[in-house]
Design brief:
Length: 336
């Protein structure tokens, strides 16, 4: 079954052709970093206009790279949410137009669930359920008990900033360009991760919830204190802050993941979301949680992409045989 996936939840326009849920024939993503970097974050109105401009060229490129035509496509899949409303609408309306004109079924996919599926697409091994899903993205930080594909219980989530958002905000305080995650990772590699005693939040009575806003404020205060004492922030100060921030954020994720895996008897952990592009995170998991089987998405599937949308759609459609109507709506939040 050939599935065309479309992804426009935030600032990446993606189209991909995937065969039978696993074989990626093409995976085209255009990033809008150039457009948003001068503002230090995504500007929704600009994101929408760029999606409109590049949607059709990206679609053609995905079909060409896969060496297929629209007539070869069996199913149209689109990220239905969560995301920016205007951005979602562009992908969804493109998908509806294609489904209607080609008379093909249409499915709406949960972008966050697709991030977890990206890891399953990255390994030839069958995952053993139940397993623990760990979502670390720019908009979400969640622990999910995966009973089987499509059956999930949310067991923890952030009560304020998502982890990727905290990376982006900490980077902004350090005058680093958007997106901050890769910049922090690079700087942190040269820094002393124990110089600053930052702390991630604990939520009373909710051991699997996260809070990163205090950690981000810790970075702000560290910068303020150094500037007040020495007037300038040196390159060494910046690397030490980045390294300390990254260590504390990741150790918090590792501690809660290990605890949840134990409580819910999960041997394997499936990771998803842009922050999983961070190599230091993988290293820390190896060092600090060696008994967990960690299933990571390939780098090209960590960040937003349409292959994960098309891949997950194969299972959703073959299990439920359900095609959405042309009245399908964009969902800015979409629960598991
Ligand atoms: O999953 P994603 O592409 O978009 C959302 O669904 O939100 O994640 C984007 C987030 C951004 O906050 C970005 O800074 C972060 O992923 N990110 C990273 C790295 N690469 C991207 N965070 C830490 N280290 C990285 N190497
Ligand atoms: Zn995403």
């Amino acid at each position: 079954m050939l599935i065309l996936g479309i992804e426009t939840t935030c600032d990446e326009t993606g189209c991909s052709v995937v065969k039978d849920g696993m074989t990626i024939l093409s995976n085209v993503v255009t990033s809008q970093i150039d457009l948003h970097s001068e503002y230090g974050g995504v500007v929704p109105e600009l994101a929408c206009r760029r999606h409109v401009d590049v949607m059709i060229p990206v679609l053609h490129e995905a079909l060409n790279k896969a060496k297929v035509t629209l007539n070869d496509i069996d199913l149209i899949a689109v990220a239905q949410g969560p995301g920016l409303i205007g951005a979602l609408l562009i992908g969804i309306n493109t998908a509806k137009a294609l489904a209607w004109s080609l008379q093909k079924p249409l499915v709406g996919i949960n972008h966050i669930e697709a991030h977890l599926y990206a890891a399953l697409m990255s390994t030839p091994e069958e995952v053993q359920y139940p397993c623990l899903g760990v979502v670390l993205s720019g908009g979400h930080t969640s622990l999910v008990l995966m009973k089987e594909l499509g059956k999930y219980d949310l067991i923890g989530q952030t009560v304020d900033d998502a982890i990727g958002e905290a990376f982006d905000k900490a980077a902004k305080v350090l005058d680093l360009p958007y997106p901050g995650g890769p910049q922090i990772e690079k700087l942190a590699a040269k820094g002393d991760s124990y110089r600053f005693a930052f702390r991630a939040g604990k939520i009373k009575g909710k051991p699997f919830d996260f809070s990163f806003s205090g950690l981000k404020t810790g970075v702000l205060y560290a910068v303020r204190d150094i500037k007040e004492a020495n007037t300038i922030l040196t390159a060494k100060d910046k690397s030490d802050i980045a390294a300390s921030f990254q260590r504390v954020a990741f150790e918090d994720v590792i501690k809660k993941t290990v605890l949840a895996a134990k409580k819910y008897s999960c041997h394997s952990v499936v990771f998803g979301g842009g922050v999983t592009a961070n190599d230091h995170l993988k290293l820390l998991f190896k060092e600090q949680a060696p008994s967990l089987e960690c299933i990571w998405p390939e780098k090209k599937l960590s960040l937003d992409n349409a292959a994960m949308i098309a891949g997950l759609a194969y299972h959703q459609y073959t299990q439920k045989k359900h095609s959405l109507g042309l009245d399908m709506e964009a969902l800015t939040s979409m629960p598991f």
